[in-house]
Design the sequence.
C-alpha cells in the first residue's frame, strides 16, 4: 500500500550572492498595494528605472503619489495603462 506522508524539508544553502536589481524592471500590477511594495523594495535595492503597469496606469488611485515618492529617491518611473491578460495590449 502506498500512502503520502509529510516529511520535514531540508533548507537549501544560500549561494552567498543575492539578486541585485539593475537597469529597468517591469512590474505588472505596479500601482496596486503589492506592486507598490515591490517597487519600493526595488528602488531601495538598486533599480534605476521602474515600469509600473496596471489597467488604469497613471489614473489608478495613489499612482501619482507613488511616482512622486519613487522619483524623490532618484528612480525613473514610467506608468503605463496595460491589461496583461489582453494579449493585444502587450504585443509590440
Sequence:
Amino acid at each position: 500500500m502506498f500512502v503520502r506522508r509529510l516529511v520535514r524539508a531540508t533548507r537549501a544553502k544560500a549561494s552567498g550572492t543575492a539578486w541585485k536589481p539593475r537597469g529597468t524592471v517591469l512590474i505588472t500590477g505596479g500601482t496596486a498595494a503589492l506592486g507598490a511594495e515591490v517597487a519600493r523594495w526595488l528602488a531601495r535595492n538598486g533599480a534605476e528605472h521602474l515600469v509600473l503597469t496596471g489597467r488604469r496606469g497613471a489614473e489608478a488611485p495613489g499612482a501619482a503619489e507613488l511616482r512622486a515618492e519613487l522619483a524623490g529617491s532618484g528612480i525613473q518611473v514610467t506608468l503605463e495603462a496595460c491589461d496583461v491578460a489582453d494579449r493585444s495590449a502587450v504585443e509590440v
Observations:
- Residues 24-90 form one domain.
